[in-house]
Each structure stands twice: as structure tokens, then as C-alpha cells.
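Q: C-alpha cells for this one, please.
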Amino acid sequence: MEFSKRISSLPPYLFAEIDKKIEEKKAQGCDVISLGIGDPVEPTPKHIIEKLAEEAQNTENHRYPSYYGMPQLRKSIADFYKRRFSVDLDPDKEVLPLIGSKEGLAHIYLALCDEGDTALIPDPGYPVYQTGAIIAGVKRELMPLLDENKFNPDFSTIDENIARQAKLMWLCYPNNPTGAIAKDNLFEEAIRFAKKNDIAICHDNPYSEITFDGYIAPSFLQYEGAKDMGIEFNSLSKTYNMTGWRIGYVVGNARIIEALGRVKTNVDSGIFNAVQLAGIEALNGSQESVEEMRKIYKKRRDMVVSTLKDIGLAVEEPKATIYVWVPVPEGYTSESFATHILEKASVVVPPGNAYGPSGEGFIRISLTTKDDRLEEALKRIKECL
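A: Here is the predicted structure, written as C-alpha cells:
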């Protein structure tokens, strides 16, 4: 049986490969510690779980949900954006709930691009930006995010012909995988560049609430002209420790939202109503857990940075996200260092080049491991160098 060309060109998903490595090491009897995927180990806050349990008992919630999300969820998302970012959103036209933001990141290509169109993709970047393009038959042009630019794109380096061909451009700040934050004028520059070249901006913002040291992350939609040129994806996964619940959303340009909604009505049947109602509870209820998670992640960030600096690695403290972007020691590549740590310390870290060629020379450490296991992992890394 022959399969599609897109399958043959689709690389294995990074975190599925990490899972395989973990299982292989465990089969050898090793005590493996994963600092790979950003999956919070702390539980979802109790009041959100209780709301799910309550609503799951209601048989009305067992039927098909709305394709476009419950009106009260869309309103809660709009209210959150007004409170948090002072952004006004029409909940009926500018808000669309998603089955986790990942599916929206992949499906947006089907709404905005034809086969053979071009997308501008940050390098390094979240793998779905590239795999979504591959599935849709979209050409990928990489925008290098370099250390000397504090991992922000330099739009002046993008070839004018490529810029004119591009239909879509990805941004992600606070950034995965680098932990970088947007420079002061990044979004204004992006909007001017997009207007000049008629490009839709897709801003991926799932780490907006995980910030440290007094930093407050903005929304792309706060900036003048943003809503004319693009959309913003966000998620409840990292903010409320709800990765397994699969609930996110996209907000912004009404025409783009409508187009993505049209795709989704043909490929999925929406989010379980009980999960949507729990999502409303997350957005509208107590936010104490969010502040508590900031403290937990800051403590872990400080532990990672301090330990790695002690062994001579030039690590910078990220002001946001749940990741530390670590330069590898001299004499190693990203892959050889990740392999060395796995073989000698039974610690799993993703090599930076797995996120794109400009990630070469780095590894990414996730802060979503219990303190004692993180401490043990750092001890092992220190001992194997």
C-alpha cells in the first residue's frame, strides 16, 4: 500500500520521539527523568475539577456541543481579554474555542493558504508551525531567531520576493523554545511588515500568564492595527495545568476567525460541554493558582540557572515561559550533548536543532518536573560533565 507524499515528508513528532526514548531507557532498568515536554506535573486547580465533575453529571452535556463553542465560554474569553489586556473582542465574531490550541495552529493553514503558498516560520519554533505547513502543502521560509537579537526576528533580513509571496507569519512571545520575550517594538514592526506585504500574523501566546521578575507579557492584539492583520492563539493548558483537557482558543480578526471556524465545522465536532463549563470556571474563578504556579516555576528556573552557571554554562534567566534555553558546552552539538546526558545521566532533554536549524548549539530544559526530581536531574547532569 502506498501512502501520501505528505506522510513521507512529515518528520516524526518531536515529543513522540522523546516518549520512545524514555520507554527504551526504562526497559533497560534505568530511572529516567524527563526534562522534555512542557506538561505541568501539578494538578488542575480543585475548583475547576469540581466544576467538570458537576457538569459531567448533567446529561444535557452528553450531546454534541456547539461547533463554535458555548456562547458563555466565548464571552468569558472576551471578558478575560478585556480585564487582562484591555482588548475589546466581539464574542460572536472574534472568539473561537479550540480543542486545545494545537489543532488550531495546524488547521489555520487550511483556512489561509492554498497548496504552494508560503509561510514565514520562526527558527527555532514550536514544531507544529512546520508540520502544519507540510500537511497543507505550504512552503516554509524560516525566520532565524538569533541570540544576538535576543531571539526576536529581524524583518529587514527577509527577502522582498519571499515577503510578497508569504500568506502567513508566525510569532510566539513569550517564546517557545527559547523563553525569550518580545522586544519593545516587535509587534509594531510586525504589523507594519505584514501590512506592506499583505501577510496574516498568527501570534501564539500560551505562556502569557507564566512570567517572572515583574515582567507582564502583552497581547499582540493590544497594538494598533493588530486586529486588521491577524489573530492570537491562547490556551488554558499551561495557565491552569489543563494540558490533558484540550481546551484553547483563538481571537482577533473576524474574517480569519470565520474562515478557521468553517474548517473546524468540517473536521471536528467541538469541545465536550462539561470541559467548556470548567474552562469558564478557570477564566472567571479564583486566579490564586496562577500566581502560585509562577512562584513554583520561578523557583525551578532559579535552580536550573544557578546549577548550570556553576558548571560553566552561559545560561540566561528567562523572564517567562516554563523553559530554559541552554547553550551546550564547547565540543558538543545539540544532539551529541542531549545524547550524552541521556546515556550517562538518564536525563531526557530535547536538542535545540529539533526546533529548527537555528536551534543548533542549545538544548531546552522544561520546568514541569517536581522539585526533587529536577534537583536530581541537575545533579546527574553536573556529574556527567
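A few notes: The chain has two domains: 5-43+288-383, 47-284. The mean pLDDT is 96.
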